[in-house]
Every structure is written in C-alpha cells, then in structure tokens.
Amino acid sequence: MNDRIKPVLVLLLLLTLSATSFAQSLQLPAIISDHMVLQRNTVCPIWGKAKPNDNITVSINKQTHKTKVDTKGNWIIKLSPIKSKGPFTLTVKSSNTNISIKDVITGEVWLGSGQSNMEWPIERTDTNNAILKKSNYPDYRIFLVPRKYTSGSHFLKPKSARWQKVTPKSITKFSAVAYYFGHDLHKNLKTPVGMIASSWGGTPAQSWTPYNAMASNTELKQYTDEFEQRVKNAPQLKAEYDKNLKQWQKDNKKILRTQPQNPGSKLNYHQIDFDDSSWKSCTVPAKFLHTYNRMFDGIVWYRTTINLPKNLQKTNLTLSLGALDDYDVTYVNGKHIGSHGSETKSSYKVPRKYKIPASINNRKQLTIAVRITDKHRYGGFKSDAKEIYLSSGKQKLSIAGNNWKTHIESTFQGEPYKPASTKGPRNVSVLYNGMIKPIIPYAIKGVIWYQGEANTSTSNYPYYQTLLSTMISAWRDEWDQPQHDFPFLIVQLTNYQSPSFSVTNHSWAYLREQQLNTHQNVPNTGLAVIIDIGDATNVHPKNKADVGKRLSRWALNQTYNKNIIPSGPMYQSHTISGNTVNLTFDYTDGIKPLTGNKLTGFFITDDHQKYLPAIAKINSNNTISVTHPQIQQPLAVRYGWAANPQKLNLTNSTNIPASPFRTDQ
What we know:
The protein is α+β, with helices and mostly antiparallel strands. A hairpin with a 4-residue loop joins strand 6 and strand 7 (98-114). The longest helix has 31 residues, at 221-251.
C-alpha cells in the first residue's frame, strides 16, 4: 500500500469511528436543558437517544428512574410529580456519559403556536421599549423552538435551542403574545412559568396537523389527497411554469425595466413642477390593495413634497423608504437617485436607502417621487412608518403620513404563479413533524393558538372548524399526558382591511365564526376576541399585550379557577317572536354598551339579502332584543359581520368586545 495513502485511511477510519461513537452517545433533546421548567404536580417525561440496549439512569429531587434503550436508540422515563419549586439538578447517565441539567425549577408550562401574529417578536411591538427595560424575571423562562419543516421524524438536537431566563436581552426575538400571556400568569399566580414558542408566519393549520388525523377524516382528506397529487404532478407543473414564466418575461420586458427613463417620467411625474392635484391622496406606508381597495399587479407612482428645516437644507441627506414590493425607481427634485430591479434578489425584502447629494437638495423643499412596480400579489410600501424618513447623521425627519399623492401608471397580468412547493412550510403536517412532534411528550399545562389568516381563502375557511377541532384532538392524543384534555386557547382573527359599516360576506367573518364554533363545541377551549385592536392596513397589529392578557383571562378562569370573567359576551342562541329577535349570551355580567348609551353594530334581515341597521336593547334578564321598524318578519341578525366591522360596542364588565356572530348559520 502506498505510504501516502495510509494516513488518509487512518483519518477516515477515525472520523467514521468518531461519528459512530457520537451517534451512540447519550443525547437529550434541546428542550431538556439548563434552566428548564418542569410542569409542577404532574408526571414529566424525560427522553433522549443513546446506544441501543444501553442502561439509562435519571435522577432528580430524591427520585431515581432506570430504563433500557430500545433497538433504535430511543429511551424514555417518567418523573413522578414534583410539588416543590426547586431549583434542582437533573442527572442522566448512560454506561459512558453523564449529563447534568442545572437550575431546573417547576411551574406552569404553556406552549404558544400558530403563524406570524404568534411569531411576532417583542422587539416589533408598540410597547417594546418599556417592556424590555424592566423584564428581569428569574422564575419566568422561555424556550424558542427552531423553525424546521420536515415530512419525517426530527430530533431537536442539543444546543439547537435553549431555555432562558426572561431578561431584556433574551426576550427581544421571542413571541410577544406568548410573552405577555406568560407574564400575566406569572404575576397573578405568583409561581414560575415556562413559555414554549413554536410558530411560523404565513402557514395554514394543515401544516400543524398530523397527517393521519387529516387522512382519516372525510372532510380533511382533500388536503392529503391534494398534496399527494401535487407531488406526483410536480415535474410536469414545473416544466409548464418555466415555459410560462419565460414567455411572461419576454412579453413584459419593457414594462419591468427599472430605468430612469420610463413612461411616467416622460410625462414628468417625477418633476418638481408637475401638477399632481388630480392624483389620489393617500397615506404612506400602504400597499396597493389598501390605497386602491383592490388587488392588482402594475406600476404605481407616489409623490410628496417635504418642507425641510434649515439644518437639513443644502446638505447631504439619506432617503429611507423601507422595503418596497417589488421594484422601484426613485427621484428627488426631478433627479434619479436610485433604483432596485430584478437584478436585486428578493428585492421586495430589501430596505431602500438612497443618498441625496447637496447638489440635488438645493431648495427649501424636497419633492420625492417613487415609481413602484409590482409583479406578483401585494405591491407597495411594506415597512412600518418609522422606516420612512430623511436623515442626516443622527437626525431623522419622518416623511410617512397622509401628505402623499398616488397615480396608477399601468396595470398588467401578474407574473405566473410558481407551482406550490412540495417541500415548503405550508405543506401538510410538515410543521407538526418539525416543530411540535419534537417537543412531545414534554409536559405542558396547555396551548395558546394564534392562527387563521392563512386559512381565509374560500377554499379553506369552510373546513376550518373541522380542521382546528381535529388538530386540537390530535395534539391532545399525541401528548397523552394525565390532563389529557389540556386547555387550548384560541385567538380569534382581529379587524383588518377596509372599514365596513354594513354586513359584508367576507371570508374573515366566516373564519371568525369557525373559530367561535370550535370554542363552543370543543371542551376546555377559550376564545380571545380582539375585534377592537386590529389595524386596517396591517395584518400584524402592534398591540400584542392585550392579546396575551385576554388569553390569560381564560387560563386564570378556566384552568386556575380564579374568580374572573374570561371574555366579553358570546352569542349562544336566539328566538323569534313577532317582529323581534331575542338573543341570549354567555358572560353577561355587567352587559352594556362600551360607548354611548345605545347598542350599535347589529343588523337584521327578513330575506337574507338586505341587512338593515337594527335597534338593539338590553333586557332586564340580560338578553338582547333586536328589531327594525321596516321588518315585521325577521329571519336573522348579524353582528360584526365584515372583515373590519365598525361601531361594535357590545361588552360586559370586562370591557372586552363581544365576539362577532350571526344567527343564520
């Protein structure tokens, strides 16, 4: 054998032995780590991986458990309930490894899951500065599950995540809703709390539901069937997409060019003296959808003129516009200062920052013109108002607000939709497999759930009650812990999109109903109503504190038996007597209008077509009677039935709004 080859072979052998040894060494999932919170007063599973047939010993607080590793390298034991707080050290031993988990305490452990509004971090909320300054709670601890989607099994590897004590630094990236919920429990129960966050923005409930649970349900089997068919058709769909995209790019080559010379510039849209009085007034930031109340793909101009303070005149400035979706050409005082086009990867995510030299900033005013091209779905300004400003050094001058004008240059057929990926996070069960299953069977008290926006399409919302109910049942079955029907607290969709003063058959209204029905039909669930704290122009409202607190009311009342009303009024049933619809509700203590002395927001119909604003009166027995002079034979009442319903004021002593509802399900 060549002497030069021998060292290489030896090295390969050592690496192979090292890899084999590592695969057989004792491992604990990341969620079993220093500073962990064990659910108090219940059986707590501890599990991991080790060499097949090895012996494992687990000890904590004067109890010791022994087990044998199975042939696949897995093991599990169950700790007896621990009543005292600790701190403790958990030791796990195999034949060749000894792991010590330090600073283990017991308390109340909850899981927060869902899509982007659950994922939304503390650092991006409207109260982040105040919270961050005072968040030092040694007995309040958090664990952030890493984002992972998979069609198979997944072990949460050591050091991929860790338990952390709540500090101003540790919570910046943590779920705001989960944080506020846990903080309220910590404060009211005066006990340690552990919050686990496992969320992924833009994902439907199908992604979080076990595959077999859907495949065995006659209504939900469509999701697993569709996925399997999509996998089968993937090669053909990709070939068709590539062909269509190439043709679309060829057809729209001129339109998509982001050069200073373009159809709008030839009409002087960017010039200082251009008369934009006929243009539409608008507020920036906003997407095309919110500016024009319709979704389209095309090219839209935005203009504004800013009066500069003296210290910003005739000096170098930086213009910050935040992220623009998709492409832009930007001008100041008639001069092109920058652009981003197809050459910029994921341009819709890129914050625009353009230099304005003093030679262009040569007037007391600054005229800014932005030409935005959207090729797919939502176009326009994507970032918050705080990201839109002029700056010089540390000084910033906000240019967001309602002093902008806008005009559509052109519209066109949008870019062909890429076939849905068979590998992304929106596919069936992949987030359950990657982000929920790996933390089962860690003992938890319950779950808070904020999701639904991704299921509001007309092909999805009719099945949401079945889907969510099935998911809840499947999670409870998979956890298989002593409190089998653990509490599952749901956040109802907030108010969003254009304000509505009438009944509108919008998918968001129907999905809220599905969430209400789930709560009313699945035991040990709660429903946090947030129809009053949304944002018409932002699907991610910044007020997460009230969401967390409204969830905690359900836990305090329902789980911890505190004398607290969990919610505003919730519709239960109705009767019709002559020209009057009589409504009964749960949680009617102190039922009242939140504002004024009359109830508003109720609508009544006698033909299921035309709904008229109704007269609603609270009766002595806390029922509500609904009438209208023109309707003698009413058929139904609706309340808050729109994407963003206005003038809703039914509440109780909590001042939390009543859930939207309809009597004609």
